[in-house]
Amino acid sequence: MAEFTMELNDEQKEVRDWLHGFAADVIRPAAAEWDEREETPWPVIQEAAKVGIYSLDFYAQQYFDPTGLGIPMAMEELFWGDAGIALSIVGTGLAAVGVLANGTEEQIGTWIPQMYGDASDVKVAAFCSSEPDAGSDVASLRTRAVYDEAKDEWVLNGTKTWATNGGIANVHVVVAAVDTELGSKGHASFIVPPGTPGLAQGQKFKKHGIRASHTAEVILDNVRIPGSCLLGGKEKLDERLARARERARTGGERVKNAAMATFEASRPAVGAMAVGTARAAYEVALDYAKTREQFGRPIIDNQGVAFQLADMRTQIDAARLLVWRASWMAINGKPFTAAEGSMSKLHASETAKQVTAQAIQILGGNGYTREYPVERMHRDAAIYTIFEGTSEIQRLVIARTLSGMPIR
Ligand SMILES: Cc1cc2nc3c(=O)[nH]c(=O)nc-3n(C[C@H](O)[C@H](O)[C@H](O)COP(=O)(O)OP(=O)(O)OC[C@H]3O[C@@H](n4cnc5c(N)ncnc54)[C@H](O)[C@@H]3O)c2cc1C
């Protein structure tokens, strides 16, 4: 276990500064344009691929940082640059994590490279779990996967929604029910390979924020995929289903399914994204408050403004510490006995919403226009309290974990 320290080591500082440079020089200058265009910023993803930021290797290196701080540090810097573009760069990671968490070595080796492509031909991937009637209530998803034993193929049918990169992805990871009686225990994840007939993009959403990130419905109409595309393989699935059926029959202890475990582990990373957006808005507000003069003095000379900035920075630092704690616990195999992952996401995402709103206030009329970036940052920040589990769901998880009661 790494010794406790509040300081990044030299290697981490080097990576942080390199990422910050990319965020400042490449991402931030492109942010307003891609927000207006509401399109995937392929040239920026390509730049990220060229320098090695858009690759599995990079994320694996950060993930295996023994302090746990590699991923949160990377997320904070990239999202400091711009949330929409950064999500376009890291969105593939959610699908990759789905494969890493549940796939065999062969599946990892086959599919993850196809998710990223290479610098001359970048690709993206999508993780499709949410459905029109299964958002917070993931267990109720209706997409079905039926095994065609004669052909050793799975047949997928259903409609997914809110999929980041849905329809434009080279590889889609789809969560579907193989046994509807078992709720989330009867779910399995599947790879839909590039160009598979029957998978089509539905509506592309016009969003409030993170507009450079593509979000769309994915329609699955008799999508036939080889048996080898079931993540983890059939034998493992059959064993898991048998255990779940036995538990359902005997009322045995509930065990978290793989998808939920992945979400819990990824929540601090979403918290870190929120910290990045909040810090970006705070910095703009601090600079503005020092230079904007009213009544013959900089507006920061007024406690009414300065105290807001003090609160903003305090909340941001508190959020980062919660994110770092959860990330450190996760890499050191410490269970989230007080739902520390959810706590970090809850506090960081609420902080991002609040801090970006305060930043608009400090910039006055300018803050309300698209001439200044805080308006975009505020729109972007609203996503953090929604995706990967809303704030209400995080509170539910925390309250249930702390009380042991089935709070609704
Ligand atoms: C931009 C964007 C990108 C996304 N990317 C992906 C992706 O790549 N892949 C994917 O699978 N999904 C993705 N999602 C989906 C996202 O995870 C869901 O939107 C989220 O889980 C909430 O589900 P919902 O929108 O159906 O809201 P609902 O579940 O309908 O919730 C509506 C409101 O009710 C509240 N609520 C619901 N249940 C309870 C309860 N029990 N107690 C208290 N309050 C409750 C919620 O907190 C919320 O305020 C994305 C969403 C967005 C907006």
UniProtKB/TrEMBL annotation:
Domain named Acyl-CoA dehydrogenase/oxidase N-terminal: residues: 9-115
InterPro entries, alphabetized: Acyl-CoA_DH_CS (IPR006089), Acyl-CoA_Oxase/DH_mid-dom (IPR006091), Acyl-CoA_Oxase/DH_mid-dom_sf (IPR046373), AcylCo_DH-like_C (IPR036250), AcylCo_DH/oxidase_C (IPR009075), AcylCoA_DH/ox_N (IPR013786), AcylCoA_DH/ox_N_sf (IPR037069), AcylCoA_DH/oxidase_NM_dom_sf (IPR009100)
Domain Acyl-CoA dehydrogenase/oxidase C-terminal span(s) in chain numbering: 258-402
Pfam families noted in UniProt: Acyl-CoA_dh_1 (PF00441), Acyl-CoA_dh_M (PF02770), Acyl-CoA_dh_N (PF02771)
Keywords: FAD, Flavoprotein, Oxidoreductase
Coiled coil region boundaries: none
Cofactor: FAD
Domain named Acyl-CoA oxidase/dehydrogenase middle: residues: 126-223
Molecular function terms from GO: acyl-CoA dehydrogenase activity; flavin adenine dinucleotide binding
Protein family: Belongs to the acyl-CoA dehydrogenase family.
Protein name, UniProt field: Acyl-CoA dehydrogenase
